[in-house]
């Protein structure tokens, strides 16, 4: 029965692990519902804000504000990589890191210098592991509730760009599609210019960029700046860029909790399968031991007769 006792201990161990994964699944499910609610509530505003900022950039004299001015040459790029602080969420973090590494590799022929700004502990550790130059690390809250929580990162990026430390800034994050699907993306934030992947959170279920609901309004709007363009743009453009970084963080949070919920659900189901297999093995071992004992008793009785 020694083998059967070992199997019993393994069954108990797997059951304890299942309790943990089930509890983590429930916690992640609760956080996911809140994060998804936040991301869906802010998408229309973030989308319209980006459409407006691009429209302003296309209609306004670029010399009115340095955020509108496109540099003649790109010498240094700041890459914001958004991951989670913790693991146990499947391949979520690795997909974001791989997307960032692919983008960095695509810039090698241009001989530009790349600096990584990490939002989330896993981003910093992953990029350092692949020998990338991580210049700053910010901790990301599990569930963002206010834009002020990402303001230190946004302020640093804006200041570095205005001081011409960076000639281009992109963000690598994960678009939330559904609880079962999330897609990593690279989006250019600065300089402000129209490009194909304009809106955050606009990747459809087919994995393609969906057209914005407000694109049709572009080029049909006229802007009047009061008291003057410089005062308005100095206040407006930084706020709108903050919104984009905030939206990318919300998308990442929703994707993270969805990925963790599914990973824990799969782990719980795998634990159930393992318990069933171990229970079958335990019953077979127990039956074999009982059969052996009966055979010994029968053999002893036959010898006495």
Description:
- By secondary structure, the protein is of the alpha/beta class.
- It has one domain: ATP synthase, F1 complex, gamma subunit (Pyruvate Kinase, Chain: A, domain 1), CATH 3.40.1380.
- The chain is built from five helices and five strands; from the N terminus they run H-E-H-E-H-E-H-E-E-H.
- The protein has helices at about 1-60, 90-105, 120-130, 150-160, 230-305, and strands at about 75-80, 115-120, 135-140, 170-180, 180-190.
- It has a five-stranded mixed sheet with strand order 3-2-1-4-5, sandwiched between helices.
- Strand 4 and strand 5 (about 180-190) form a beta hairpin.
- Helix 2 packs across helix 3 and helix 4 (about 150-160) crosses helix 5.
- The longest helix is centred in the last third of the chain and has 76 residues, at about 230-305.
- Residues about 210-215 have low confidence and may be disordered.
Q: What level of helicity do the residues show?
A: 55-70%
CATH classification class: Alpha Beta
The gyration radius over C-alpha positions equals: 28 Å
Which consecutive residue ranges, at least 5 long each, have pLDDT under 50?
Answer: 212-217
Return the string of H and E elements.
Answer: HEHEHEHEEH
Question: What are the key terms here?
Answer:
single chain, 305 residues, alpha/beta, Pyruvate Kinase, Chain: A, domain 1, 13% strand
């Amino acid at each position: 029965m020694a083998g059967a006792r070992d199997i019993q201990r393994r069954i108990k161990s797997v059951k304890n692990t299942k309790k943990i994964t089930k509890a983590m699944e429930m916690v992640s499910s609760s956080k996911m519902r809140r994060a998804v609610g936040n991301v869906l509530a802010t998408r229309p505003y973030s989308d319209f804000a980006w459409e407006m900022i691009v429209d302003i950039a296309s209609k306004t004299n670029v010399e009115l504000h340095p955020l509108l001015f496109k540099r003649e040459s790109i010498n240094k790029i700041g890459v914001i990589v958004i991951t989670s602080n913790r693991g146990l969420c499947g391949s979520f973090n690795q997909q974001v890191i791989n997307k960032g590494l692919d983008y960095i590799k695509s810039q090698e022929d241009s001989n530009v210098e790349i600096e990584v700004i990490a939002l989330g502990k896993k981003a910093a550790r992953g990029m350092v592991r692949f020998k990338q130059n991580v210049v700053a690390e910010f901790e990301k809250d599990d569930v963002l509730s206010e834009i002020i929580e990402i303001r230190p990162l946004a302020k640093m990026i804006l200041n570095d760009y205005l001081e011409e430390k960076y000639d281009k800034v992109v963000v690598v994050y994960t678009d939330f599609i559904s609880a079962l699907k999330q897609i990593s993306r690279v989006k250019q934030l600065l300089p402000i210019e129209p490009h194909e992947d304009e809106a955050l959170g606009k990747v459809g279920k087919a994995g393609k960029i969906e057209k914005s609901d407000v694109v049709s309004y572009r080029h049909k709007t006229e802007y009047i700046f009061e008291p003057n363009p410089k005062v308005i743009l100095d206040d407006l453009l930084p706020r709108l860029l903050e919104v984009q970084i905030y939206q990318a963080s919300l998308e990442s949070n929703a994707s993270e909790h969805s990925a963790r919920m599914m990973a824990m659900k799969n782990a719980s189901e795998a634990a159930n399968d393992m318990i069933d297999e171990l229970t079958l093995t335990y019953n077979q071992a127990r039956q074999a031991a009982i059969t052996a004992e009966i055979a010994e008793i029968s053999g002893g009785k036959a010898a006495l007769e």
